[in-house]
Amino acid sequence: MSLYTEFQGGSEVALSKIISHIENRREGYQEVLSRLYRTGGRMYRIGITGPPGAGKSSLVNRLAGLAAEAGHRVAVICVDPSSPFTGGALLGDRLRMQDIPLDKGVFIRSMGSRGSTGGLAAATSNVTVALDAFGFDTLFIETVGVGQMELDIIDACDTVVVALVPESGDAIQALKAGLMEIADIFAVNKADRAGSDQMVYDLQSAMEMKAVHSEWIVPIVATQATANVNLDELYRHLTAHKAYLEKTGLLAQKRAEQLKKKVERVLVKSIQRDIDRTLLNGAVLDDIVGRIMRGEDDPYSAGQALFRQYKFGS
Amino acid sequence: MSLYTEFQGGSEVALSKIISHIENRREGYQEVLSRLYRTGGRMYRIGITGPPGAGKSSLVNRLAGLAAEAGHRVAVICVDPSSPFTGGALLGDRLRMQDIPLDKGVFIRSMGSRGSTGGLAAATSNVTVALDAFGFDTLFIETVGVGQMELDIIDACDTVVVALVPESGDAIQALKAGLMEIADIFAVNKADRAGSDQMVYDLQSAMEMKAVHSEWIVPIVATQATANVNLDELYRHLTAHKAYLEKTGLLAQKRAEQLKKKVERVLVKSIQRDIDRTLLNGAVLDDIVGRIMRGEDDPYSAGQALFRQYKFGS
Hints:
Chain A is built from 14 helices and seven strands. The first copy, chain A, is of the alpha/beta class. Chain A has helices at 3-8, 12-23, 29-37, 56-69, 92-97, 119-134, 148-155, 170-176, 179-182, 196-209, 231-248, 250-278, 282-293, 299-312; strands at 44-49, 74-79, 107-111, 138-143, 159-164, 185-188, 220-222. In chain A, 54% of the residues lie in helices and 11% in strands. The termini of chain A are far apart. In chain A, strand 6 (185-188), helix 10 (196-209) and strand 7 form a beta-alpha-beta unit. Chain A has two domains: 3-248, Rossmann fold; 264-312, no CATH class. In chain A, helix 2 packs antiparallel against helix 6 (119-134), helix 4 packs across helix 11 (231-248) and helix 6 runs parallel beside helix 7 (148-155). Chain A has a seven-stranded parallel sheet with strand order 3-2-4-1-5-6-7, with helices on both faces. In chain A, 47% of the residues are buried. Chains A and B meet through helix 3, helix 7, helix 9, helix 12 and helix 13 of A and helix 3, helix 7, helix 9, helix 12 and helix 13 of B.
């Protein structure tokens, strides 16, 4: 039986193998993605982001459990912060996630940095295609931090939950980091801590000051994920946001925008691979760098000369 | 008098105008960069990174002052966290930096997110070319956070200072975020806080566990930037690291690697601009997205078809 037949038959082992194939961009992975893509299209994607220590893993844990109880087939991707030098994901988040009861059938996958800008966002987006084709209808993507890479990942989600903790100045940090713009729902987690009410208030004030371009009023929910307080309410807001996007046609619009970016990324990636193979072998670059270091060239002229060579063959 | 003549004459107004030209990628900016590149080459670049709240601005403030006192011509770039949606840098860090005494002649520039992955790292790298050509011999680049974008910026520096604060688990967070691999020097700032000794000890232990590939022993300096405690020592380690890189030939090696990446980036950027102009106009992408949404195509096949069209014209 082929791997793909096993995958279609619902084997999680086959799913994991196919994900690894895609994640490591092994030979032929784009053909695999093409094939998988056409059998998917039903999965709803929820992104959870926020600063380290906000309890994102616990929140995802609880929400994934609630979604599974509601009858959804649920997958979780944890995007781990990790070194671009070692390339590996660390175990912390993965281990924490394991207290999602296994009998709920939630599929969990950790992903680590691929070591190049945009690489992890693209790899994560590719892995979602496999999960979608496998039949999951609900995906949670947890990302740590608020850097550009995380924003690229979040950009590919349908609903975005921003998790914060009551700490002085955190509402302002959130504002600075652009979290106000991406949040569809705020979770003020660890709400038993001092300053929780104040933070909810600060966020409300900040959101009210924003020019409103949308009929969606961003809910701000005070939660305690580990003690399971107010998770039901948070989950209700998730389903309400999904219904809102569907009703208004915004979901289709969002998907179209995401697809444009995706097509462009595949194109650019194909060109980059072609360049690496045909134009940028070690000797050529060494030669160019030597010329630049001797003051005979500069990286801007050299890069543009390579472009002309690629485009016009001269 | 032309802008470039004023620039050569030492006008900071002309410098600022040229930086804006480069930063906003206005028409002809690559030619400007080519020209500037060939008159530079002497500037030493120090990156300072670490989690929010580590006191990076204060550290840069003090170190820039010390470098200026030692007779260097010093510039500072603050890379602000900001929204990819609003595109603007926020004022907080900029304002904080202003307590560098103006009579020390330190030039300060803030840069905000350009809204695309890799865009800010490339823009920052381009701006350093202008600062170098202007005659600054020492540059501090402050970046907030430890995302991929920050790592790309740090990658273009000669010496990297990682700033941390004594907080439980922060040494482990630093390890997880890959900061161990990029740090040439650690500053445990706000060292008057509880847990400072413990953190220095934790970092030392973690560094000792690392396989040593280098003769450079990463110093761990307990500092209090706002109270000016131990900044002299931190500065001495900076100059020692510079001397080490020069003596061993590692600086030239590092610069060659950075140049390779730079040439490749210019090439890819040129291709991307060409694609946007010739291939990816709105109607073409709308058409493709429509086909994908009707299930007649998928983003991977569509992207590769566009690649073949670009490369072979069919």
